[in-house]
Amino acid sequence: MKERMVKGKNSLTEGSIIRSILTLSIPIIFANILQTAYQLTDTFWVGRLGSDAVAAVSISFPIIFLIISLGSGLAMAGTILVSQFKGEENKKAVDHITAQTLILVLNISIVLAIIGYFLSPHIVAMMHAEKEVYDGAVSYLKISFIGMVFVFMYMVFQSLMRGVGDVKTPMYIVMGTVLLNLIFDPLFIFGYGFIPAFGVSGAAVATIATQGLAALIGISILLKGKHAIQLHLDDMKPDIVLIQKMFKIGLPASIEQSVRALGMTAMTFLVAAFGTMSLAAYGIGVRILSFIIIPALGLSMATSTLVGQNIGAGKTERAEEITKLSSRIGFIVLSIVGVVTFYFAGSISEIFIPGETETINESAVFIKIMALTFGFIGIQMAINGAFRGSGNTMISMILTIVSLWVLRFPIAFFLSRYTDLEAVGIYISFPAANIIAAVITMIWFARGTWKQKKLTKEVNLTGETSKETIIEEGMNN
Predict the structure, then answer these.
(1) What value, to the nearest 5°, has the Cα angle with vertex 294 and ends 355 and 311?
(2) d(CA 109, CA 247)
């Protein structure tokens, strides 16, 4: 028989919807701001080394994001399952899924880290990096891949905690490690005392050290089991049937994240053709974009958890209302942020690469072109969060492919290669894709087919007779 949660009011499936959204999204947003601070801190300190150093980090970032994305979808599968079974109050299932998600992602992270380390020189060469950028980019990538296991482990911890509705604990951990990163970055980049100056690579060393600490703390918390979720060593035996189901759920999410990362990489290829200045300007603009859309990302993650738990609890109409309200909030908040960013684009760019006027001006042009359509990103991300939370990862994947590969990249390629706009044509592709993709996403949501899926029925963890029971050995032994 399945072990249920301690009964009581679940604030995420009852009461005020807006309170539920804010309760989850605000800590997630703050945690993501802190997480993004890793990259922004790197860019800030590396910027003191000049445009070549910034370009080295900029050309490396999409590659790192791509590798992480390959495993993040499987972590997301665990999150989706955990949230729906949390809504159904099945704690035994939540704990078992936790262990299996950890096993799966750990093994994948080791394989990807090894492959990425040895392919780093070839990857950077394929990006057509200039000679002054090549060595720094390769070194930065190699060191980043060494610490990939730590990044993946913390990612799993954070995702699973979010699935059960605990978003504050990961936020506190990130806060502490980011503060350490603020100290470690200049220490390892420029050196001090017996610590040598690693240059661009120092940023990667600092990040590995702090991410490793975060991962160890996260696993320790899961083992203690004081936050509605616990890692049991007995559950660490691979459950092949469950893992297969997680692959089925997580593969589209992995493809979605990978396609997004590949889109960033492809866009970097296009920009690199216009020289180091454009590449550095684009890198700064993308970093700003990744920071600015954090509210939308927080809403998307909160929506996934809320929709998952409410569908698990059988409250489909509430899940729909949550999605509608989240998308409205996303549009309004990001539109306001976009207007502010538009007016301060030059000043923002100057923070990251002071004194290099041409690069600052180029980056400001990119930011201004994007800024006024940020609200449409908010709509798209909120609704995609609902699709993922309901288990419809395939829909979210298709919409991402359309946004990046049917819209953004072809527009960027055409405008930069076949018009006089050059790099500006690449910048224009961002707002064009934002608007069209948001409209398509809203139409798909309005069809309502996403509400017909419930993973707690497809994935039976009760130990009762069912052809779809996926814990036949792990839960019954």
Answers:
(1) 170
(2) 15
What residues have CB less than 8 Å from 135, skipping those under 6 apart? none
Give ∠ CA 415-127-426 in degrees, rounded to 5.
20
Q: What is the pLDDT of residue 453?
A: 66
Q: DSSP letters of 114-163?
A: HHHHHHHHHHHHHTT--HHHHHHHHHHHHHHHHTHHHHHHHHHHHHHHHH
φ/ψ of residue 192, rounded to 5: -165, 130
Does a structural domain hold residue 4?
Answer: no
pLDDT of residue 236: 84
Question: How many angstroms from the chain centroid is the CA of residue 213?
Answer: 20
Please indicate, yes or no, if residue 99 is contained in any of the structural domains.
Answer: yes
- What count of Cα atoms within 13 Å lies in the side-chain half-sphere of residue 363? 34
Please check whether residue 5 lies inside any domain of the structure: no
Are the C-beta atoms of residues 287 and 39 closer than 8 Å to each other? yes
Domain that holds residue 125: 17-458
Please give the model's pTM, rounded to 2 decimal places: 0.79
How far is Cα 363 from Cα 271, in angstroms, rounded to an integer? 12
| Residues of the chain below pLDDT 70 | 1-11, 36-38, 129, 453-477
The domain total for the chain is 1
Give the other-Cβ count within 10 Å of 343's Cβ: 11
The per-residue pLDDT for 92 is: 86
Q: Which residues contact 386 (CB under 8 A, 6 or more apart)?
A: 303, 304, 307, 319, 322, 323, 326, 445, 450
Burial 162-194 (b: 16+ CB within 10 A, else e): bbbbbbbbbbebbeebbeebbebbbbbbbeeee
Say what the pLDDT of residue 464 is. 35
Cβ atoms of 66 and 265 within 8 Å: the answer is yes
pLDDT at 134: 82
Return d(Cα 24, Cα 13) in angstroms, integer.
Answer: 12
SS3 of residue 4 by DSSP: strand
- Bridge partners (DSSP) of residue 192 are 195
